[in-house]
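User: tokens in, sequence out, please.
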């Protein structure tokens, strides 16, 4: 059996640390950019440091524990920086961490936070049906915005 024949097993294995994020307070979010692509999201939490990153060729994501957060830097195309849209989640508790999408179809993670009922952090594979042609083997980062009430206009 080749690796590509057991994607379900590989995504299960690569995501086994996801439940460890639940209940953790987010202290820091840093992004690794290899210009122009987002490659890794680092989460500094009360339960340790975790990296959300592409696995194999980026067709699915994984959660890895890290000994430390990387230092903020900007070195000739290699960048570690904050990502302003994710700053709204700093200081909040992760109440749910779940997988979204599927291999080659937007596999990734959605994190919900206390006090943010209408916003979630989304980190997913660039391979989600609408990937820009100039990007590959990288991440899409987003903030989910949810409406919970209907208003007649």
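Assistant: Sequence out:
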């Amino acid at each position: 059996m080749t690796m590509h024949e057991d994607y379900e097993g590989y995504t299960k294995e690569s995501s086994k640390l996801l439940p460890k994020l639940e209940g953790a307070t987010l202290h820091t979010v840093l992004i690794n950019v290899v210009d122009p692509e987002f490659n890794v999201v680092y989460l500094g939490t009360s339960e340790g440091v975790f990296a959300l990153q592409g696995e194999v060729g980026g067709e699915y994501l994984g959660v890895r524990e890290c000994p430390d957060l990387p230092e903020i830097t900007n070195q000739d195309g290699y960048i570690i920086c904050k990502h302003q849209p994710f700053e709204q989640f700093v200081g909040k508790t992760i109440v749910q961490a779940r997988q979204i999408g599927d291999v080659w179809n937007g596999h990734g993670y959605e994190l919900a936070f206390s006090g943010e009922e209408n916003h979630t952090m989304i980190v997913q594979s660039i391979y989600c049906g609408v990937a820009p042609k100039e990007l590959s083997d990288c991440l899409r980062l987003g903030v989910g915005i949810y409406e919970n009430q209907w208003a007649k206009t």
